[in-house]
Design brief:
Shape: globular
Number of domains: 1
Number of strands: 3
Largest sheet: 3 strands, antiparallel
Strand order of the largest sheet: 2-1-3
CATH class: Alpha Beta
Radius of gyration: 14 Å
Order of helices and strands: EEHHEHHH
Number of helices: 5
């Protein structure tokens, strides 16, 4: 992760929670935010679904851009979010693997 000249970057991120669900948020300090989530100081949603693992992020110059992207991602279906995650990190297929197991049960 990089910092731009003159200030911090802003990030939109997706974490996979301990129960397999996905949570999307935004921050200007991604390492601290993930640590906060895992220490029970993050969002109400993640507090009862620990631990969380960062599975996706995007960098933006402004807070407004990051917040706009957060909203866009939150409008996506789980399947669309999984595709987004897998495009960024094809070598880590944690999200996709869990869903393949669930599909086999059906």
């Amino acid at each position: 992760m990089t910092k731009r000249k003159g200030g911090a970057m802003n990030y939109t991120y997706i974490v996979q929670c301990g129960d397999g669900s996905l949570y999307t948020g935004w921050t200007n300090n991604i390492e601290k935010r993930i640590s906060d989530h895992n220490n029970g100081k993050g969002a109400k949603y993640t507090k009862t679904r620990l631990p969380v693992a960062l599975v996706y992020y995007e960098e933006f110059s402004t807070k407004e851009e990051a917040m706009r992207r957060e909203w866009e991602i939150k409008q996506m279906s789980r399947k669309e979010k999984k595709r987004l995650v897998l495009r960024q990190t094809p070598e880590t297929d944690q999200v996709g693997e869990r869903d393949r197991r669930e599909e086999k049960k059906d």
